[in-house]
Structures are given as structure tokens and as C-alpha cells.
Amino acid sequence: LLRADGGYRLDAETVTIDLKRRTVTTDDPVSGRLPMGDFHANAMSGDLAGRRTRLEGDVHLRINGGSGKG
Fold first, then answer.
1. Number of Cβ within a 10 Å radius of residue 59
2. What span, in angstroms and rounded, lies between the C-alpha atoms of 26 and 66?
3. 58-63 long-range contacts, Cβ below 8 Å, gap at least 24?
4. What confidence tens digit (pLDDT) does each residue in 37-56 have?
5. Could you give the C-alpha distances from 54 to 24, 46, 47, 65, in angstroms and in order?
6. What's the pLDDT tens digit per position in 11-42?
7. Which of 8, 9, 40, 52 could be disulfide-bonded to 4 (CB atoms 3.0-4.6 Å)?
8. Are the beta carbons of 36 and 68 closer than 8 angstroms?
């Protein structure tokens, strides 16, 4: 379980973080929460430097109404 300020949460059995390459990956199912809603997927990869995440396989995202700003 990883948590960050701002309402971010990630649940995964295993996660590999490569600090030298600044990447995060897992081939295990993941689920989590963002300020905009909840998600789950079969796998995940991310680029920490580029602040990008890719969810793969049976991806579901539930967006909560009224959660956006502006």
C-alpha cells in the first residue's frame, strides 16, 4: 500500500521501483484511488520523472462526479 498527499493511494502485491531509471512496474493486479475516482488493472508501469502511469489489462476507472476543480 502506497499513499501520497492529495488523496492518492495504490494497492499492489509487489511493485518494483528502479531509482536509477526512475521507473515503477508491477505485473500483479493493482487498484487505487485518485482525487477523481478509483481504478484497477492487471498490471502497471510508470515513469517517475515524466509523471506518467500506464495501466494495462482489464482496466477500469470510476470517475466521481463533482470531483474536478474549476
1. 14
2. 31
3. 61/37, 62/37, 62/38, 63/36, 63/37
4. 999 999 999 998 998 989 99
5. 10, 6, 9, 23
6. 999 999 999 999 999 999 999 998 999 999 99
7. 8
8. yes
Cβ atoms 31, 11 nearer than 8 A: yes
Q: Cell triple for residue 21?
A: 531509471
Amino acid at 6: G
pLDDT higher than 80, residue 1 = no
Q: pLDDT grade, residue 6 (50/70/90)?
A: confident
> What sign has the CA pseudo-torsion 6, 57, 63, 14?
negative
DSSP conformation class of 64? P
Query: Which residues are 26's β-sheet partners?
Result: 44
CA–CA separation, 24 and 17 (whole Å): 4
